[in-house]
Write a structure and sequence with these properties.
3-stranded mixed β-sheet
């Protein structure tokens, strides 16, 4: 995560400052960054955890602490699943409501309901119990689409990775390699992942279940 955020922060700097001025002798002032991640995954995770970019550095054995941290990026991760970090959630009605919404979706899924039905019932539950009521009434369809895009795509990608099938990303890597530069490969991977996301969400909206879609991806290609 610190490595990902380092890339994101670089992109932000490129948008807020004139990059031509980085060659000037005058000091360029930039906003002081603070990096925070809100975790709501299903795997067990502590209430708070500190991640450091330096944890990923190779060949640091024997170096002094000062040498190890010549480049550093610190990320504070907060678990916002229902029941965690109550003080933080109580300070934000929106964040607390989102945490409850995700918790209800998972609760309904555990009963055997499909993701689509679980999202539908969770939204209705929140509206009926005055949780994000106005927001969900005004933007309910957008919320459902967002949940399909993020929540279910992450689940799908986990399955694909475990099965060793990642065709969209392979296609992206080929696109990047053709450009002949490392950054092209990174862009290519992003293109492949985004293509997978859109294809998967479109199949979900057409009425197919996640299980059916995964079987389609695992099926051998026909000539």
């Amino acid at each position: 995560m610190p490595l990902r955020i380092l890339r994101y922060f670089e992109g932000i700097l490129e948008r807020i400052i004139d990059m031509n001025k980085i060659f000037d002798r005058k000091l360029i002032k930039i906003p002081r960054p603070e990096f925070i991640v809100l975790y709501n995954g299903e795997n067990p995770y502590p209430e708070k955890k500190t991640l450091r970019l330096s944890d990923a550095f190779m060949d640091v054995e024997g170096l002094t602490m000062e040498s190890k941290t010549s480049l550093e990026l610190v990320v504070q991760v907060y678990n916002i699943n229902h029941g965690y970090n109550k003080e933080i959630l109580q300070k934000s009605e929106a964040l607390n409501g989102y945490s409850l919404l995700i918790d209800k979706i998972r609760e309904y899924q555990k009963t055997g309901l499909t993701l689509a039905k679980s999202i539908e019932l969770a939204v209705k539950y929140c509206v009926g119990n005055n949780v994000l009521k106005d927001f969900l009434k005004d933007h309910g369809s957008e919320v459902v689409n967002m949940l399909f895009d993020n929540y279910d795509f992450d689940t799908y990608m986990d399955v694909v990775r475990e099965g060793g099938r990642d065709e969209g990303r392979e296609e992206g890597i080929e696109i990047g390699t053709a450009k002949g530069i490392e950054i092209g490969t990174v862009k290519g991977i992003e293109i492949g992942a985004e293509k997978e996301r859109k294809d998967f969400v479109n199949l979900l909206k057409s009425g197919k279940s996640p299980e059916e879609i995964i079987k389609m991806y695992d099926a051998p290609a026909t000539s």
